[in-house]
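Appendix B, example 12.
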Amino acid sequence: MKGGLKKLIYCTMASGILLGAAFTFTGCNKDLTDLHYQFNYAVIEENGKDVLHKVKSWADSESESFTIQTECCDNYIWASANRGNLYKNKPDSSAYDVECEHGNE
């Protein structure tokens, strides 16, 4: 009985160490939990105007910036959190000045 209890204690400790390491090493990029957000619209400050774009795809970076590929004009836009916002649903018209009018040129 002593050998079985000792083995159980060692296995529990090893599991705890592995679990702690998993949380420690994935703490910065948060890949251990599902943090996949869906953004369909972006309002980006361009030449002094806030322009609404429909988002085809997006990517976040380690800094306070993000990259989007737009559906409206098929451009890639790299913006900072200070100059752009991402939205799941279309924002109210007070959040932007104009919509992207380029179509798929």
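Residues 2-25 form the longest helix (24 residues). The beta strands are 41-46, 49-60, 65-70, 76-80, 84-87, 98-99.
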